[in-house]
Specification:
Radius of gyration: 15 Å
Helix content: 10-25%
Structural class: alpha/beta
Number of domains: 1
Oligomer: single chain
CATH architecture: 3-Layer(aba) Sandwich
CATH superfamily: Dihydrofolate Reductase, subunit A
CATH class: Alpha Beta
Distance between the termini: 22 Å
Number of strands: 12
Length: about 170
């Protein structure tokens, strides 16, 4: 069976911050809609802390996969695997998977990912405590970038960008 294409989907501040105290930096409706549109119908792979941060548990319409070294971890509505490699292998035969966080999983996945689906914010957040790994221009090439927009509720500027691994 063929391995799936590995997508990382993440929202980042200019300093590559992705979270603070177990939550997203910003709750931007357009970002959440894009996340749903891109991931719907595909397996999503996440770490335990990300799964536990989901307000309503497993995300509907997607195969939820949680990575945890704790064999007894209970993730209702999700499958649990001990490693990123095991989680991706369990998805062989599917076209693509999405890595949805958190920082530890992103740091492992960036070495094997095929595509990055970024939401870029133009504002840093004081107290951010979770960061995405460095994105090297030697490794990643942008293929699409939206115009900058402003979220009406938070006032934060954002854009969507797709990068692919250089061969």
């Amino acid at each position: 069976m063929k391995n799936p294409a590995i997508n990382i989907i993440v929202a980042v501040a200019p300093d590559l911050a992705i979270g603070r105290r177990g939550d997203l930096l910003f709750h931007v409706s357009a970002d959440l809609r894009r996340f749903k549109e891109l991931t719907m119908g595909h397996p999503i792979i996440m770490g335990r802390k990300t799964f536990e941060s989901l307000p309503k548990g497993a995300l509907p319409g997607r195969r939820n996969i949680v990575i945890s070294r704790n064999r007894d971890f209970n993730a209702p509505g999700a499958e649990v695997f001990p490693s990123l490699e095991a989680a991706v292998a369990a998805c062989s035969g599917t076209g693509e998977v999405f890595i949805i966080g958190g920082a530890q999983i992103y740091s492992q996945a960036i070495a094997v990912a095929d595509r990055l689906q970024l939401t870029r914010f133009d504002r840093t957040v004081a107290g951010a405590d979770c960061f995405f790994p460095e994105i090297s221009a030697d490794t990643w090439s942008p293929t699409a970038c939206s115009e900058w927009a402003v979220d009406e509720k938070s006032g934060v500027r954002y854009c969507f960008e797709t990068l692919v691994r250089q061969k």
